[in-house]
Give the backbone structure.
Amino acid sequence: MSYAVEFDEVSRSFGAVRAVDNVSIAIEEGTFFAMLGPSGSGKTTCLRLISGFERPNAGHVRIFGENSENLPPNRRPVNTVFQDYALFPHLNVRDNVAYGLMVQGVDKRSRHGRADEMLSLVKLGDYGDRKPAQLSGGQRQRVALARALVNKPRVLLLDEPLGALDLKLREAMQDELKALQKQLGITFVFVTHDQGEALSMADRVAVFNDGRIVQAGSPEDIYQRPRTRFVADFVGSANVLSPALSQSAGSAKAWHSLRPESMELAKAESGRLAGTVASIRYIGPVKRVTVDLGGDQLTVAVPAERTVPEPGTRVGLNWSDASIHRMEDE
Amino acid sequence: MHSERAPLALKIAAFAGLAFLHLPIVLIFVYAFTTEDRSYQWPPPGLTLKWFGVTWNRPDVWASLGLSLKVASVSTVIAIVLGTLCAAAVSRAKFFGRESISLLVILPIALPGIITGISLRSAFNLGDIPFSTLTIVLGHATFCIVVVYNNAVARFRRLSGSLVEASADLGANSFQTFRHVILPNISTALLAGGMLAFALSFDEVIVTTFTAGQQQTLPIWMLEELVRPRQRPVTNVVAMVVVLVTFLPILGAYYLTRGGTETAGVGK
């Protein structure tokens, strides 16, 4: 398997701040790769190390096996969809999309033809003559996408491209991006702080914290088997069991994670743990029941059609041995 | 609020203010047509167009007008090049002492012209540089740069940094980025700054008196003329021309820079 992008012990500091700290990753060609993390975790700097707007202080960034240190951004086989789209305000949509071809010296007729093709790919075929200011946020986002794809990059970098869109539009764009990636077959590297977005779209996810990769793997890995408390916390609403609580539930004395949907309610005396129901929330198809264990709180997801005990009732909690997952101390 | 009519007193005050500002200029225009050529009498004893002909045939007027145009054009060109580069450096890069440099660039326009004039004159003396058109141009360039810089720096701040990155990302080299992205986005600011610089240079007196040798720019020529009571209305004719020559670029600059408060390139 050949790698589109490889990070080999890469570090990048800004003054005293280590934005990227000894990161190694290998992104396989043709995958949809998500870099997930809170703001300031180094994921955007990693993206800029690939596009060439940042240089590593240590380590190597290889693009298709070649060291990229001496390649300026304009000579890398990658293109970026910027967070604020960065459309050229003085050019119309067609010329924006054709920009990459124009600077290569492609003649006007063929570059406009290619631009129109790309615009129909992103379903904006009729918008070529408009100025960016006349478009909605979602439309600008598509123009930015078409502009980045017109040069036929081998890797497309997307820097929180859906951040500025409202929820409904964002979900539609997620599906479209995923479909587009399949259709084009090129590598997408996607930066986001939205765990739902990362897990639903990507083939592989790297979770960033404090400039390091805490865990990299398939969305299922990350979701079911978070490696540290940070991942469990950040990626979703997994229950985190402290070493003491784990021990009293019959597991080893270490941090554990437990998905709400892997647990079920039982009679107080027959559960691995027992506590009182603190609150019940209805979220679409499930009810989330929060059980208070005298300090610790665990959440259980129960199918919405099932009846659950009233708040204040004592209940027991059960789960199978396979569903509890031991995490590393950190 | 806007539908209410202004009270009478406010109207009178506004008109009085405008009259105070502009009546003297009207007076200059009127005296360009007077028949009396030794003193400024009011009302003018008669009206005539002969001073236009007289002015036309005065070689000293043409010489100083030519010099003024030349000086203003050259200093404007210098100001556009240096002012833009300076603005680009200050707004694009982060470096030690950036704020101080920004202040130092603006300082010449805050400094009294007489200080600029004296310091330039002693500098030219020290450097054994003979006074010439070049020294006048250098003097004017000091304050022309500020005008261009101020216009350009404001526009650079509005130009989103990711536009330049987007251009590089799409394969453009630095020159192509400047030509196709930066220049189209700052050109109106440069034009406006250049016009203001031209107008400032065209009517500058103080710095010019210190940096010119025997040459006379148009404002200096006018100053000399007022001392001599000979063909006085010629000065008024010239003044009219100066008002028109400087007013048009300023009007142009005003129209070019008004509006457009949105940040170029931020698409949200």
Observations:
- The interface with chain A takes residues 160, 162-163, 165-173, 176, 180-181, 184-185, 262, 264-268 of chain B (CB under 8 Å).
